[in-house]
Design brief:
Shape: elongated
Strand content: under 5%
Helix content: 55-70%
Largest sheet: none
C-alpha cells in the first residue's frame, strides 16, 4: 500500500530528477524520490546498528560466545 504525500523540493533537485526520468533511470518523480528516501532510511539504520555494535566490548562478547564451550567439547562426537 502506498500513501500520497506533498513535498517541497529545491528547483535544482527537481531538474536533476527530471533529467533522470528523461534518461529513463526512473519512470517518474515519485519512483525516484521513493527510492532515494528508502536508500537514506537504510543507511540510517545501518549507521545506527554500527554505532550500537561499537558500544559492545569485544572481550566480553567473546567470553559470552565461548561460555560453556569447554565443558561441551568433551561431549561432542568424534568425526
Amino acid at each position: 500500500m502506498k500513501s500520497k504525500i506533498a513535498i517541497t523540493v529545491d528547483e535544482e533537485i527537481v531538474k536533476q530528477l527530471d533529467y533522470l526520468i528523461m534518461q529513463q533511470s526512473y519512470k517518474n518523480r515519485s519512483q525516484a524520490i521513493e527510492e532515494a528516501v528508502s536508500e537514506k532510511l537504510d543507511r540510517l539504520k545501518r549507521g545506527r546498528l554500527a554505532r550500537e555494535c561499537a558500544k559492545l566490548d569485544p572481550v566480553e562478547e567473546r567470553e559470552l560466545a565461548e561460555e560453556g564451550i569447554e565443558e561441551d567439547v568433551d561431549n561432542w562426537p568424534e568425526y
